[in-house]
Amino acid sequence: MKQVTLLALLNLIHFCVFADDAETFGNRLEIGIGGMLQDTVYTGEEPSALVFPMFVAKYKNIYVKGGKAGFIFYGLKKGNTTFWTEVIANARLQGITSASGSLEGLTDRKNTLDMGLEASIASDDWGMINFSMVHDVLNVHQGYELAIKYQYPMSNGPWFLMPSIGIHYMNQDLADYYFGVDINEVKLNRSQYTVNEAINLSAGYELQYRFNEKWSILNTLNLMKLDRKITDSPIVSDNLDIIGIVGLVYSF
To answer: What is the pLDDT of residues 213-235, one digit of tens each?
Structure first.
């Protein structure tokens, strides 16, 4: 069995400074290579490591950052506070396939594409707040997710640090698709289980060091504390999903 949460993971990577808001969204191209370590929450699964390409492209108000793409259609700046809204598309790559061991007999959980809206407000004084709502557009899980995230950027010379916290609501269709157990998946040691809905908590940081105008190294860590309704599932053995990334990036 292989769980690929390669990202959700790529959505953790901003590569860009906090100043990239609705009005200063300049053209940009960055590529690099990164390594990821993830501690899976699924029963019987070992932590996984992955080497992957990093990619960020921006043209005016359109951007692609790893597993996320967006189009900013409205922006307003007043004083040192900026507000903008955008259409976003997120790759949801937390599917599981070829289940074996403790997960033998499970139906594959497929990856999909979520799309929706995101609204952000940022201030030099207190940081940035993002509100997002996305829905499955490929009819895989047919559910939706609501999220609110707070980030506070700090910089000192070549260093950039942005800690964050968030709350994520999964409706029943989404949560049950990835973490529930259908009647046809029941085994002697695995009972039927339905996840009605879930509220997960996240915390993490993004750290970047620029060697010069072209090269930088970055590190991200994201912790997702899963709702009890998810961790009570017989296919889940941990309440903390952990993803760490280290990467080297070149800016054109």
So the answer is: 999 999 999 999 999 999 999 99
The fold adopted by the segment(s) 2-251 is Porin (2.40.160)
DSSP output for the chain: -EE--TTTGGGG---S-TT--SS----EEEEEEEEEEEE--BTTPPPEEEEEEEEEEEETTEEEETTEEEEEEEEEEETTEEEEEEEEEEEE---EES--GGGTTPPPBPPEEEEEEEEEEEETTTEEEEEEEEEESSSSS--EEEEEEEE--EEETTEEEEEEEEEEEE-HHHHHHHH-B-GGG-BTTB--B----EEEEEEEEEEEEESSSSEEEEEEEEEEEPPHHHHTSTTB--SEEEEEEEEEEEE-
Contact (Cβ atoms closer than 8 angstroms) between residue 54 and residue 66: yes
Extents of the domains making up the chain = 2-251
Q: In whole angstroms, give the CA distance from residue 103 to residue 203.
A: 28
**pLDDT tens digit sequence for 12-65:** 334 343 334 333 446 889 999 999 998 889 888 888 899 999 989 999 899 998
Q: What is the DSSP string of 107-170?
A: PPBPPEEEEEEEEEEEETTTEEEEEEEEEESSSSS--EEEEEEEE--EEETTEEEEEEEEEEEE
**Token duo for residue 205:** 């940081």
d(CA 8, CA 94): 8
